[in-house]
Amino acid sequence: MKSFAPTLWLLLFTLALVACDPSKGAKFQEKQTGTQVDPNEEYVMVTTAVNMPMYVNHDQATFKRWGEQMGVKTSILGTSEWDVQQQIQIIEQVIGTHPTGLLINGTDPSIARAIDKAVEAGIPTVVYDSDIPQSNRHAFLGTDWYEIGKLQGEALARLLNGKGKIAYMGIVGMTNMENGFRGLLDVLANYPDIEVVGKYNDEANVEKAAKITADLINAHPDLAALAGFDSNSGPGIALSIREAGKTGKIVVTTVDWEPEHLKLVKEGGINLLVGQKRELFVWYGAQFLFDMVHQTNRISGNDKSAGITNVPFAVNTGLFTITSENIANFLP
Amino acid sequence: MNTPGIAKLLQERVFTLSLTLVILVGVCSLIWPDTFLTFSNLSTLLLNISTDSVVVIGMMILLISGTFDLSVGSVYALSGGLAAYLAYNYGMFTPVAILVGLGVAVLIGFINGLLITKVGINPLIQTLATLGIVRGIFDLMGKVATLPEGFDALGTSRLMGIQTPFWVMISLVIIFSILVSRHVFFRRYYYIGGNEKAARLSGIPVNRLKVWGFMLSAFLAGVAGILFVSRMGAVPDTLGKGLELKIITAAILGGASLLGGQGKITGAFLGVIFIHLISNILVFARVSGQWTDIIFGIILVLAISLDIFLKKNAEIRLTESLRNIYQQPKP
Amino acid sequence: MAAARLLLSAISKVFPGVKALDAVSFDLLPAEIHALCGENGAGKSTLMNILSGNLQPDEGEIFLHGEKVVLANPLSAQNQGISIVHQEKSLVGNLSIAENIFTENYPVKTGGFIDFPELYSRTQKLLQTLNITSLDPRTKVESLSSTRQQIVEIAKALAKNPKILILDEPTAAMTADETETLFRILRELRQKGTSVIYISHRLTEIFEIADRLTVLRDGKYQGTFPVADMTIKSIIRLMVGRDLEEQTYTSQQQKNILLSIKNLCGHKFHNITFELRAGEILALAGLVGAGRSEVARAIMGIDPAEKGEIWVQGKKVIIRNPPDAIRYGIGYVPENRKEQGIFPEMTLADNIAVTSLSSLARKGFIQNNQVFSPVQKLVEKLQIKTPSIQQKMINLSGGNQQKALLGRWLMLDPSVLIVDEPTQGVDVGAKAEIYQLLRALAAKGTAILLISSELPEVLALSDRVLVLYNGTLTGELSREEATESEILHYASGLARHSP
After folding, report:
1. Are strands C164-168 and C195-199 parallel, antiparallel or unpaired?
2. B319 versus C184: which is more confidently predicted?
3. Confidence class of residue A26 from pLDDT cuts 50, 70 and 90?
4. What's the pLDDT tens digit per position in B76-134?
5. Rounded Cα gap, residues A326 and A331, in angstroms
6. Nearest of A154, B205, A279 to residue C302 by alpha carbon
7. Is this prediction's ipTM beyond 0.90?
8. Torsion angle defined by CA atoms of residues B252, B258, B261 and B264, in that order, rounded to the nearest 10 degrees
9. At A79, phi and psi to the nearest 5?
10. Distance from CA of A322 to the nearest CA of B (A)
């Protein structure tokens, strides 16, 4: 006992802090929706890489805002590193704590089984960002990654006037990225004068992306364009192009609209950004859970026993593009 | 019990760890009376520890012999990924695909062992290089989203309501804890870790045993990887990333020393349970992200410092008793 | 007593459960070499630790130049002019000699930069006063022999200009020649007025170098005597509290040849040929670095020989590794017990059972009682002092550890046993017991190859002495022919010119 006593006390202390929730026992609240809301309703977001700015600023901020607005508890679980296996374990373990609803980031197809377990346990489960079609999730809200590739492809073809050398990068092997790559290549296949010189894995790492770009510029002095597919592709690409003194000479299209991306568009380092409406899929994802729990839209006398999920099956929240023309609207 | 008896027990990591686990579970079942101590939560917990516990067995044996293997996470991924890939893309008969996956794991372990013992590469550098190489090969391989039926069954079929990986894990833990504590072959790893030079001079085939150790560690990592993939029915692309440090941490908590010569399989197993129990508690307490990392760091440092403190106390008492013996008047 | 430079009066030190020092007094005159004798555990280290400021006495007073002082910590002891050269090496291998010597007081230029030219010239000067000109201050310490390192240790202690220098077992790893160099340095220091406290297990050295000696036994003061009034026998009587039995030598040598080495060549030795008979104790003498241990390692298969033949009991064998050697009935107790011999954190039982695990196990599984009963018997037979065979090896004294290492091989009952420096760092009592043990083994018919740097040991034990110089056999001496000077003669490579 002695050996671990302080450890134990530390843990107990932490647990006590977390367990003592002042809101416990509060009266039922009446919200503007007219539905009775139990403030102990708890909606849990299970994601990974919880410190990633994009997740923090868009997903998690929206989720918290939604919880406050609805007067319910929200919790966010996930490791600080990108760790799918750990996400699976967290999903499996959180089921036992009977949350009101689960909002799960569709990081990888292998989380399907864990999602099914939650559904089996009767917990409303919504997947956001990328779909896990193999699973029995109740609903999905997110973006069509094929479309992200397609938008980039079309922009590139237009900006290059249909000819030149192109390379692209992202997290190779990740399902949604691969879909995006496919969208890009499908468009470019229509332009015989566009030559694709390669597909590169930047592992969502700025330095990797910069290094790949620098090497590409050296190997192909006539490189005409680069396309990026993860949050760190753009900043990395733009950095190396600037260092090679080729800003404006190489066309860059990429994804996401974090402050650094926006700044680069303004400075001309990036020609086009494809943005996802993360706020929308998180907000409405949470709302779907809420609506399932509260039977906001009832289809039958008892949807549960009728086996009906009374929210949309899949929602595409759509995309938008940012260029030098509309950048002003996004800057503070 | 008299004081020296308790003091001795407190030096025994298996005892302190078990005690801590029992207390933790007790306290948590008071905090979350309806949800914590339930069959569903415990079986989830046991299922989650099953793969790590299989990997930790091999790591513990290596740590006992004074070395370690950083490539277990990558081997775990490649073995599981490759077996799934062959079964899915080439329709290979499941048992054959699994054997190929395990064979590749053993081969990697063999290469590790050979380069470390024959060429004399430092194990840290060798297994770090292997970690990168094997991860790269895994990344090159296409990923599998759905597995054939037979493959699935390995990880998802149930016995007495608990999934197979648990039963595989529990049998391996029992078998190896008996072998490692009792069998001559494994007993020799303690000598190697205790003093490698002396072990060699005493006629222990140090190099051969080390190669076997690396092969065993890789083999068990492969088994765990295949179990996990078949349980999930898919191969995540970050499969097994960072596993090595988690496993080494569990083994150290379970009584291993980086200097070698110490540790028991049961200790390593309890170390894994401990880490997963803390994770489980953190999920229940809705703590996430960097807090988890901070709490784990603190636990590790506290546990090890306390252990050193207890050992020192014991050492002082021991020196006294020895002095008395040596100070006895000579005839 | 006013003339004493250092005076310890009635010092006592109690560790929990044991009185390590019991009212011990000690005085040190200016310009004298004072030997401190006692078995391991007699309290020498505790006394030296008190003198160097590592430990504080519970009772008693310390006077320096007649004034009462408190040595609160090592630094204050140094500042009062007391320097100690510990048995454990305190040098940093990959730094130069100069940097090691001036670790605590580098000469610096403005801005805190090390003044290297000054550092080297100071070191050079210091080495010159020690009459050592062959060492370059820039040499890395790790490239020096252990003797040279010991000299650097002493230089490091002298760099602080001490009035009192304490040396703890400085010659443990030295050959006769090197010891002579050290003694020359010590005599010169004495001439310059430095007082030296000299601790050594080698009693002969004390007669050579010391002026007076003080004996401790079990933490109690046994007296201080001029060396001239003492004999080895009388010192030993004071140290152990009884006479050690004078052992009469009888050769146990039998006819049959157990080990035969023919033209063995290796990295550091060439054309070694000899035969070893049952019951014979054959000594391999020579200076450190002459290749004695290398021959042993080749026979054992640790660093297999490049050329030559090994015959065991009339059959030619090939030994590639230690398990091969063990299979042919050869055992090896290595030099440097700590590094190559013991498993410090494992139990005494484990340490003894290591060579015979397979035979102690049943179907590969080890039951504790199967191990314990033979080990227990052996521990009793060897008179290893331990509370239990479950005791950790590191907690046993050097002599008991050494006996356990011998015991490890006795479990196997080898036909040939190679013992390399079997009594290094072992106190007088245990030494005698180990000698007895080796003789008893020989009487049972075991052939023993003894490697030792202690010539009295070689002379006391062996039936025959082979002398190695620079990797070649230069002489073979029968017991009757062997004397210290004769062995040294061959060991320094002078064989061919001798009459």
Report:
1. parallel
2. C184
3. very low
4. 999 999 999 998 888 888 899 999 999 999 999 999 999 999 999 999 999 999 999 99
5. 10
6. B205
7. no
8. 10
9. -85, 160
10. 31
CB atoms near residue C435 (< 10 Å)? 17
Q: Looking at residue A31, what is its pLDDT?
A: 45
Residues recorded for chain B: 331
Q: Give pLDDT tens digits for A43-63.
A: 999 998 888 888 998 999 999
Q: Provide the shortest C-alpha distance from residue C397 to chain B (in Å).
A: 9
**B72-89 vs B149-156: helix axis angle to the nearest 10?**
140
Mutant choice from B44, B45, B154 vs A, greatest count of A C-beta within 10 A: B44
Neighbouring-strand partners of residue A104? A46, A127
Residues A49, A51, A56, A57, Cα dihedral to 10°: -120
Q: Return the partners of chain B (3 or more C-beta pairs < 8 Å).
A: A, C
Helix, strand or coil for residue C59?
strand
* Residues belonging to chain C: 499
Chain B with chain C: Cβ pairs closer than 8 A: 110
Angle, CA of B184, B186 and B188, to the nearest 5°: 75
Q: Do A76 and B288 touch (CB under 8 A)?
A: yes
Average pLDDT of the segment spanning C326-353: 90
Please name the residues in contact with A125: beta carbons below 8 A apart, sequence gap of 6 or more. Answer: A101, A102, A104, A115, A118, A119, A137, A138
Helices (H) then strands (E): counts for chain C: 17, 20
Residue-wise pLDDT tens digits, A266-296: 989 999 999 999 999 999 999 999 999 998 8
pLDDT tens by residue, A75-134: 999 988 888 888 999 999 999 899 999 999 998 888 999 999 999 999 999 999 988 888
Give the Å distances, CA to CA, from A275 to A144, A204, A229, A258, A284: 12, 17, 11, 9, 18
Reduced DSSP (H G I as helix, E B as strand, rest coil) percent helix, strand, coil of chain B, to 5:
75, 0, 20
Estimate to the nearest angstrom the gap between the alpha carbon of B322 and the chain centroid: 36
Instruction: Tell me the C-alpha distance between B277 and B107, whole Å.
Output: 34
Q: Establish if B232 touches chain A: CB-CB under 8 angstroms.
A: yes
Q: What is the 3-state secondary structure (H, E, C) of B222-263?
A: HHHHHHHHHHHCCCCCCCCCCHHHHHHHHHHHCCCCCCCCCC
- Give CA–CA dist C26/C8, Å, rounded: 5
Could you say which DSSP state residue C144 is in?
A: S
B17 against C494, higher pLDDT? B17
Give the chain B residue nearest C240 (alpha carbons): B330
The three-state DSSP-derived secondary structure of B91-117 is CCCHHHHHHHHHHHHHHHHHHHHHHHH
Tell me the backbone φ, ψ of residue A108, rounded to 5 degrees: -160, 145
In this predicted structure, the answer to whether residue C428 has a pLDDT above a threshold of 50 is yes
The secondary element (H helix, E strand) that includes residue B211 is helix B206-232
Q: Residues near A263 by Cβ (< 8 Å), separated by ≥ 6?
A: none
Name which residue leads in pLDDT, C104 or A316.
Answer: A316
Q: Would you give the DSSP letter of residue C347?
A: B
B251: left (phi over 0), alpha (psi -120 to 50) or beta: alpha
Kindly give, in sequence order, each residue whose CB lies less than 8 Å from that of residue C345, ignoring residues fewer than 6 positions away. Answer: B194, B261, B262, C392, C393, C394
Hey, are the CB atoms on B323 and C385 less than 8 Å from each other?
Answer: no
Lowest mean per-residue pLDDT among B4-18, B176-190, C440-454: B4-18
Please tell me if residue B201 touches chain C, with a CB cutoff of 8 Å: yes
Span B228-238, mean pLDDT?
85
Q: Which residues 110-169 of chain A have a CB within 8 Å of chain B?
A: 110-114, 134
Q: What is the pTM of this model?
A: 0.79
Q: Which residues of B touch A10 (CB under 8 A)?
A: 295, 298-299, 302
Provide the shortest C-alpha distance from residue C16 to chain B (in Å).
6
- CB within 8 Å: B187 and C344: no
Q: What is the per-residue DSSP string for C98-136?
A: HHHHTTT---B-GGG-B-HHHHHHHHHHHHHHTT--S--
